Amino acid sequence: KVLGRVPLIGTIECAEYLEEKFPERPVFPKTGKALEHAVEAFFDAVVFPKFFMPVLSLTYEILDEHAKPYFRRTREKAFGKTLEEFSPEGPVRDGQWKDLEAAFDKLAAIYDKNGSNVDFIAGGTNPTHADFYTASNLMWINCVSPEEWKNRGVEQWSNGRWGRLLKRLEEWENPKD
């Protein structure tokens, strides 16, 4: 703890902390957290490398003018290229989006082990952290560019799995309790 605060370094650590503090709305299955950690690790290793180039350049476009210099400086340093080189319009960008869709298809193949009609990764009737993690990254795309979301047919990727997941998660967006 730092001055009464708890330093958190990753999304799963944040989720574990929130689960501890607010146990009435659990996001981890009672049987354990291994699946949640594995799905997030898979996402980070397989999907994120394909996610960054097209989505980061779109993210920059929606930032306010105050945030843009920091975002540009830190991302260009981290990736060793200018934001304009991340995802240039045309065949390069189209290829990046196809690669991103293919990465989401790999994740869908894992989800599909429960059956193509089962929406949540743990196979139950309630979502878990991994479902929220996946959905939040899909929502990131829609937030930074609804136009790209629509034009690229993201909701229909993986035989519509991701559109169904987002629809199923709507009831958790604004909980009544």
From TrEMBL:
Annotated ranges, domain Glutathione S-transferase UstS-like C-terminal: 34-172
Pfam short name (any one): GST_C_7
UniProt-listed Gene3D superfamilies: 1.20.1050.10
Source domain of life: Eukaryota
InterPro entries: GST_UstS-like_C
Protein name per Swiss-Prot or TrEMBL: Glutathione S-transferase UstS-like C-terminal domain-containing protein
Organism of derivation: Sphaerobolus stellatus (strain SS14)
